[in-house]
């Protein structure tokens, strides 16, 4: 019985009321599992026992129970009295005359009982046929009301179940008609057995239909994923996102391991695409679902780590540095204990962790991990140029922050040359490289070259993702900084305001990237003698950084800038408070950095 329930558990969307009934009714299971003869006898004694509740109140004499039992026995043995005619041809019974097939009931049922069962839905023809049967079987008149109520209860229950059984299958339809015929004769056990057989057959048919439908949906999901890949090759990221969302919606859930791991792959791809479009919270949600399925169905270590690393990236982009670090370390550890680990994946994981440390100012640790990542990549028999390019770009970013500009420029220019050879000059990764190279030129004072590269990056990002994207906001912020350096304050103000609006819409009001644009806009206002307005923005930036990155040197820098503004406003006590906070941040940063000299990270990458 339980195995049948399990088999049919997923059929509700296809079977409608049939399947809802079968999942909740143990009779359906028994009708399949018990041989017909035993099932009929058991059902007669259990389902139609005298303690089963009914919808009607029996108003009868004490003789009803005995006569009801006699009727039930008659039903089980399929004994039907069809003719009680005498030699005279007519029988007179209790004032009623039987003349051929026509029966005229002469006040045998009370008007109250007839009205009651009619209101409940029993048809007049059924009442007439039942009276005919009672008369033929010579049932005492005082028992007719009680037996009509019992007949109505059983008839209406079975009729309701028959009405629920919606099907176009001819065999099921024939069984329904068979059950209807038994009902008309009051043969309840036979009617119920026919009904159960019809339901079981309908469910088997529905199961086959669902399996066929699932196969079709799976194929449609695979086609949608292929369409997404085609759109990605055309740099149509929005179109790829739409196709992947469709694929996930189409893929039927709850099937076997192979299907569920395929669903995990679709969720992973959707998480990547969602993150590409700047929705990092949505990306995190999809990656969590993907990871849960891969863990449940025991995917390979490499597949599990891919989900972990992508989840870590989504978390990092939301400013949750500690959570991201734990995930990167978890992924690296899993790869190191696996004999079949993808070494290229290990290289990427190590470089991602290095980039995280670099962004937090942990340059010593970051450089060690970048070196380790490059060593792994160089040892691979088949190197992926795009993965190597991303690692080199991240190293260049670290050199820019450290103002090691010649080294950064050399790396970035080599990547630009590679892209120019492939002619893939509208790829978003190329835009990132151009933006980093522009930052090098800006720090070198070559503002004209920097502006040209920033503008190319804006064009690439807008083409790939649209203008409502974190990458577009970041380059707007960089353009604003460039204009500020050139003392073009109005243009700088416009770039910073656009950047802030995008960040707030996409990342919320408490994100570190937003804080940097707020600080920059505050600085522009301060440069224009709008001191109070500028100080308010810088204060907000300081509060965000303290809340989100309490151990980052970037936070200490923002706090020191705030202190300088407060000094200029002749508020020395508040300025000192900001400097004290900056010093505390650096103490926490150094303590945390010292902890990383323990074998934790080093062992993780060995």
Report on the structure:
This protein is 76% helix and 2% strand. The model is unreliable at 1-107 and 597-606 (pLDDT under 50). Helix 23 runs parallel beside helix 25. The chain has helices at 2-8, 12-15, 17-24, 26-33, 36-47, 64-76, 111-120, 124-136, 144-164, 170-184, 188-233, 237-250, 257-276, 280-296, 301-317, 321-337, 343-359, 363-378, 385-401, 405-422, 428-443, 447-465, 470-485, 489-507, 512-527, 531-548, 553-568, 572-595, 599-604, and strands at residues 91-93, 96-99, 102-104. Strand 1 and strand 2 form a beta hairpin. With 606 residues, the protein is mainly alpha-helical. The relative contact order is 0.05.
Keywords:
elongated, mainly alpha, single chain, 606 residues, disordered N terminus
Shape type: elongated
Output the strand order for the largest sheet.
1-2-3
What does the radius of gyration come to? 40 Å
Largest sheet: 3 strands, antiparallel
What is the helix fraction of residues, given as a range? over 70%
SS-based structural class? mainly alpha
Beta-strand portion reads under 5%
Uncertain parts:
1-107, 597-606
């Amino acid at each position: 019985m339980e195995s049948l329930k399990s088999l049919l558990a997923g059929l509700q969307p296809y079977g409608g009321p049939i399947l809802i009934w079968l999942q909740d009714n143990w009779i359906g299971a028994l009708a399949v599992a018990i041989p017909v003869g035993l099932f009929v006898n058991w059902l007669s004694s259990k389902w139609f026992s005298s303690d089963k509740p009914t919808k009607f109140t029996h108003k009868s004499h004490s003789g009803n129970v005995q006569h009801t039992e006699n009727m039930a026995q008659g039903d089980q043995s399929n004994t039907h009295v069809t003719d009680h005619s005498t030699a005279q041809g007519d029988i007179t019974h209790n004032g009623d005359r039987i003349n051929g097939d026509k029966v005229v009931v002469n006040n045998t049922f009370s008007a109250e009982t007839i009205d009651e069962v009619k209101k409940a839905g029993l048809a007049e023809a059924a009442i007439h046929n039942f009276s005919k049967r009672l008369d033929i079987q010579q049932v005492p008149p005082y028992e007719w009301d009680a037996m009509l109520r019992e007949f109505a209860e059983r008839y209406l229950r079975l009729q309701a179940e028959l009405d629920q059984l919606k099907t176009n299958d001819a065999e099921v339809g024939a069984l329904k008609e068979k059950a209807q015929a038994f009902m008309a004769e009051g043969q309840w056990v036979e009617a119920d057995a026919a009904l159960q057989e019809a339901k079981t057959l309908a469910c088997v048919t529905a199961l086959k239909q669902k399996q066929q439908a699932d196969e079709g949906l799976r194929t449609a999901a695979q086609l949608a994923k292929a369409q997404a890949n085609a759109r990605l090759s055309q740099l149509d990221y929005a179109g790829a996102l739409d196709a992947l969302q469709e694929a996930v919606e189409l893929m039927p859930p709850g099937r076997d391991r192979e299907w569920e791991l395929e669903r995990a792959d679709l969720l992973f791809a959707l998480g990547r695409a969602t993150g590409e479009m700047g929705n990092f919270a949505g990306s995190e949600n999809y990656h969590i679902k993907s990871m849960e399925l891969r863990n449940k169905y025991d995917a390979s270590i490499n597949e599990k780590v891919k989900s972990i690393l992508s989840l870590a990236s989504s978390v990092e982009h939301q400013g949750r540095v500690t959570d991201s670090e734990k995930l990167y370390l978890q992924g690296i550890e899993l790869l190191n204990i696996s004999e079949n680990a993808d070494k290229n994946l290990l290289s990427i994981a190590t470089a991602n962790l290095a980039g995280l440390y670099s962004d937090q100012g942990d340059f010593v640790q970051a450089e060690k991990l970048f070196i380790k990542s490059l060593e792994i990549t160089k040892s691979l028999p088949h190197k992926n140029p795009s993965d190597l390019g991303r690692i080199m770009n991240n190293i260049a970013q670290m050199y820019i922050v450290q103002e090691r500009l010649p080294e950064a420029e050399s790396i970035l220019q080599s990547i630009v040359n590679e892209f120019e050879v492939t002619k893939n000059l509208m790829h978003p990764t190329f835009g990132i490289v151009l933006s980093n190279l522009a930052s090098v030129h800006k720090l070198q004072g070559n503002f004209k070259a920097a502006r040209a590269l920033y503008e190319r990056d804006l064009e690439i990002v807008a083409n790939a993702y649209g203008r409502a994207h974190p990458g577009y906001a970041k380059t707007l912020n960089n353009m604003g900084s460039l204009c500020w350096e050139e003392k073009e304050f109005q243009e700088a103000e416009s770039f910073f305001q656009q950047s802030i609006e995008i960040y707030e819409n996409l990342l919320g009001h408490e994100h570190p990237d937003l804080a940097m644009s707020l600080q920059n806009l505050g600085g522009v206002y301060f440069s224009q003698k709008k001191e109070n307005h500028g100080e308010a923005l810088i204060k907000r930036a300081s509060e965000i950084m303290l809340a989100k990155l309490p151990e980052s040197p970037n936070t200490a820098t923002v706090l020191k800038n705030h202190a300088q503004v407060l000094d200029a406003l002749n508020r020395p006590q508040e300025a000192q408070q900001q400097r004290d906070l900056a010093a505390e941040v650096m103490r926490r940063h150094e303590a945390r950095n010292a902890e990383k000299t323990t074998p934790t990270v080093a062992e993780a990458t060995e």
